[in-house]
Amino acid sequence: MTQTTPSFTPPQDEGAVKISYKGKSSTFPVLTGTSGNNVIDIRNLQKDLDLFTFDPGLGTTASCESKITFIDGDKGVLLYRGYPITQLAEHSSFPEVAYLLLYGNLPTRHEYKVFVDRLEEKSLLHEQIRNFFNGFRRDAHPMSILCGTVAGLSAFYPEGTDTSNEESRDIAAVHLIAKIPTIAAWAYKYSRGEPFVYPRADYSYSENFLNMLFARPDTPYQINPIFSKAMDRILILHADHEQNASTSTVRLTGSTGAHPFACIAAGIAALWGPAHGGANEAVLKMLHTIGSKENIPDYIAQVKDKNSDVRLMGFGHRVYKNFDPRAKIMKKTCDEVLNELGEQDPLLELAMELEKYALQDDYFVQRKLYPNVDFYSGIIFKAMGIPESMFTALFAVARTVGWVSQWKEAFNDPLRRIYRPRQLYTGPGERDLWPR
Ligand code: ACO
């Protein structure tokens, strides 16, 4: 198999920024990448001027150099290794995209077969892992089962601790991409009290996942090609998104040299939050709360009220300030799935009405708030029979590819060092503790 190890060339120098402070001045180079914003290289800021930068939420900080994913938030562009997400979603498959993200290039036919065979071979879980599930309550959230079980898997693969070895990092990456759908599907089966369904070699990645979720010993699951195509596309759309909260968590955890399975468990924990991967579940909850079209104005009024903490879920994005290219593909996929089912979902109608209303409202227009990928994904999942509690787990299945690709890339970065952000301390100055 050809593995394109990213070769790090220093970005070009594009001028400099001079900063003067307290009678001293220093010049900081401006670096340019292939696309996107240039960055000021402030690595010498403390040494030269005894200053740190202040950037809560790291919204204007490039925390690393990467060759994997590019986003232009203003133009609504998302590229994986240079390929537009729209083209990949239309013409590629999830394992092919996984290969692309991991190794830098699309696979040849032979490389694809080898990769898919590896994924298939590693998709089984050690039988002892079945016992993990019994430790959870039946009503445990699938994300807590996923997070705990993936962290626990590290005990079964001690070789993953040898992160200095490229081959062992690659094995860990393939294990994770292969096993996480099995764990996620079993978390669902466990919540229903149904027997676990094992992966099958004759099914594609997406077919397998659907089969593990829905097949039962008494009723084999009939794979609907529209559903498996939709699942594949959803996985592609969610596979990577550069340095988002969960990916940064994985990179940060990885920077300590932690076991790869523990790093991915940390990513799963970060993804779980409603401001990140939990949003698609939150969209459906919101639609249930709104209930019907007549209640939209009241709900929007609450969203706009600065004294309430209600947000329009599935709207807004830290990076996309025009449109989310994934949302467009998702809307099309949503139509295909609902057409296949031949039913009009009242929740989808409500979502469409809500979207129309918000897009015409000054509050959302002025703040450049548009539907994000999560606005539609929940509706598709619901139509396919996937319960709300599983939505974020599905996102984790997809994003595992991005996490492991970014985690691997970090090891080839000559600038790699442990993450250690600074702070602006505003607490009490030093004070003495008096005897009490
Ligand atoms: N509903 C109402 N107002 C919003 C929303 C929203 N969904 N999103 C942002 N705003 C408002 C903020 O209140 C703020 O208003 P102000 O300027 O009057 O104070 C302004 O828009 C800017 O908001 P920020 O919080 O600075 O935006 P940020 O980039 O930090 O947040 C986020 C992005 C977290 C995604 C936010 O838009 C949000 O909470 N959206 C809803 C949750 C969601 O859908 N998350 C999924 C993200 S996509 C993903 O993870 C795959």
Strand content: 5-15%
Overall CATH architecture of the largest domain = Orthogonal Bundle
The order of strands across the largest sheet is: 1-2-3
Distance between the termini: 69 Å
Q: How many runs of DSSP E, i.e. beta strands?
A: 6
Shape: globular
CATH superfamily label of the largest domain: Citrate Synthase, domain 1
Structural class: mainly alpha
CATH top level assignment of the largest domain? Mainly Alpha
Count of discrete alpha- or pi-helical segments spanning 4 or more residues: 18
CATH topology term of the largest domain: Citrate Synthase, domain 1
Q: Main beta sheet: strand number and arrangement?
A: 3 strands, antiparallel
The string of secondary-structure elements, in order, is EEEHEEEHHHHHHHHHHHHHHHHH
Number of domains: 3
Ligands bound to this protein structure: acetyl coenzyme *A
Q: Which spans have pLDDT < 50 for at least 5 consecutive residues?
A: 1-8
GO biological process, one term: tricarboxylic acid cycle
GO molecular function, one term: citrate synthase activity
Pathway: Carbohydrate metabolism; tricarboxylic acid cycle; isocitrate from oxaloacetate: step 1/2
Keywords: Transferase, Tricarboxylic acid cycle
Question: Could you explain the architecture of this structure?
Answer:
The protein has 436 residues and is mainly α. It folds into three domains: 13-51 and 59-80, Rubrerythrin, domain 2 (Single Sheet), CATH 2.20.28; 85-272 and 387-395 and 407-412, Citrate Synthase, domain 1 (Orthogonal Bundle); 278-384, Cytochrome p450-Terp, domain 2 (Orthogonal Bundle), CATH 1.10.230.10. The chain is built from 18 helices and six strands. The protein has helices at residues 45-49, 85-91, 94-103, 109-122, 130-134, 142-153, 166-192, 205-214, 225-237, 245-254, 260-271, 279-290, 296-304, 325-341, 346-359, 362-366, 374-383, 391-411; strands spanning 12-21, 24-32, 39-40, 69-72, 77-80, 83-84. The strands form two sheets. A three-stranded antiparallel β-sheet has the order 1-2-3. A three-stranded antiparallel β-sheet has the order 4-5-6. The longest helix has 27 residues, at 166-192. The structure holds acetyl coenzyme *A. Residues 275-277, 279, 303, 311-318, 367, 369, 372-374 line the site of acetyl coenzyme *A.
